[in-house]
Design brief:
It contains 2 helices and 6 strands, in the order βββββαβα. The chain is α+β, with helices and mostly antiparallel strands and 154 residues long. Strands 1-5-4-3-2-6 form a 6-stranded antiparallel beta sheet. It comes from Polyangium spumosum. InterPro entries: DUF6968 (IPR054241).
Length: 154
């Protein structure tokens, strides 16, 4: 799980990624999410990766933490997901049709590899069902289209 801390200290952060989200509530407007480069601060015991979510009312810089830079980055993305969900504000990628932020939760390994594998299998099974159903619908539509286009010979 992400260890998220926040600060109001202003420091020169090297932002490496940005995503714009549309607010789908009465307030409207744009929410900007920025992720900074993972860093090992002087005197620190672990990596941290800064992020900020602007447009939801609290523009504080927060951090995902871990003992390695990649995990700090992953914890940052997970922290963003939880902060957006906790806000309760419907959001979507700018210009998208559906409410989707692009910040999905990770399957945790906190409870062991077997638990993680079971969750991953459940997700893949559900995804396979959806994809298979979509392919079947497309095949039926194509068959109907071909049947309509075929001239009758009687």
């Amino acid at each position: 799980m992400p260890a998220s801390a926040k600060t109001t200290k202003t420091k020169r952060i090297r932002w490496i990624a940005e995503r714009r989200l549309e607010r789908r509530d009465a307030v409207g407007g744009i929410v900007v999410v920025r992720i900074g480069s993972p860093e090992w601060p002087p005197g620190a015991e672990e990596w941290r990766c800064p992020y900020v979510i602007e447009g939801l009312g609290d523009d504080s810089i927060r951090f995902g933490h871990s003992n390695e830079s990649m995990a700090a980055l992953q914890n940052t993305i997970q922290g963003i997901h939880y902060d957006l969900e906790r806000s309760g504000i419907p959001l979507r990628l700018e210009g998208a049709r559906k409410d989707y932020t692009g910040f999905s939760p990770f399957v945790t390994w906190t409870y062991g590899r077997a638990f993680q594998q079971r969750l991953e299998k459940m997700l893949l099974d559900e995804e396979t069902k959806l994809v298979d159903a979509k392919c079947e619908r497309r095949e039926r539509q194509e068959a109907r289209r071909k049947a309509k286009a075929k001239p009758r010979t009687e």
